[in-house]
Specification:
Distance between the termini: 46 Å
Largest sheet: 5 strands, antiparallel
Radius of gyration: 18 Å
Shape: globular
Strand order of the largest sheet: 1-2-3-4-5
Order of helices and strands: HHHHEEEEEH
Structural class: alpha+beta
Number of strands: 5
Helix content: 25-40%
Number of domains: 1
C-alpha cells in the first residue's frame, strides 16, 4: 500500500512539473492515429504509428515527443507563433535511426476543438555513414533498402 501511494505521489509531482503533459499526450495520440495515406498519398491507409512500426521492424525502439519543430531561435524579439511538432525517433535493431516530425498544418483559428491537420515537417534516415533527408515518407522504404545494400555491416 505504501508503495502504491509513493508511486501515485511521484506521478502527481511529475505531472505538476510539466503543465503541457496533457496537451502533449493528446497531440502524440493524434499523430499516432493520423493516416499515413493522408501524410503521403503514396502510402497505404494505415495509421502513422502502424506504418512506422512496419518500416522499422519488430525490434525497433521508439521515442515520441512534442517540440517546437526546431524552429525556436531563443531570440526574445521573435514574436511569431511557435510551431508544434510531434517527433518520433525510431532506432532500428541495426542502429540506423529514422526521425520524423509531423506538424499541425491547420490555420491558428481552426485549431481550437478541431483535429490536427498533419503534414510532414521533416524526415530523415541516419546511418553510421550518412544522413538521408526524405522528401516524402514513401521514400523511406527505398532508403532503408539502399542503406542496407551499401553498408550491410550496419544492417546485421
Amino acid at each position: 500500500m505504501k508503495h502504491a501511494l509513493l508511486i501515485l505521489s511521484l506521478c502527481a509531482v511529475v505531472a505538476a512539473q510539466d503543465p503541457n503533459a496533457k496537451r502533449d499526450a493528446k497531440l502524440i495520440a493524434a499523430a499516432k492515429e493520423a493516416s499515413a495515406h493522408e501524410l503521403d498519398n503514396a502510402l497505404p491507409k494505415l495509421s502513422f504509428e502502424k506504418w512506422i512500426e512496419k518500416q522499422s521492424g519488430p525490434d525497433a525502439k521508439y521515442h515520441w515527443e512534442v517540440n517546437d519543430c526546431g524552429e525556436q531561435s531563443g531570440n526574445l524579439n521573435d514574436t511569431g507563433p511557435v510551431p508544434l511538432c510531434v517527433e518520433v525517433d525510431s532506432t532500428l535493431k541495426d542502429g540506423r535511426e529514422v526521425v520524423v516530425f509531423v506538424a499541425d498544418d491547420s490555420p491558428e483559428d481552426a485549431k481550437k476543438g478541431n483535429p490536427p491537420g498533419w503534414k510532414i515537417f521533416f524526415a530523415q534516415l541516419t546511418t553510421s555513414h550518412e544522413k538521408i533527408t526524405l522528401r516524402r515518407l514513401s521514400d523511406l522504404p527505398a532508403a532503408l533498402i539502399k542503406t542496407h545494400q551499401l553498408h550491410p555491416e550496419v544492417a546485421n
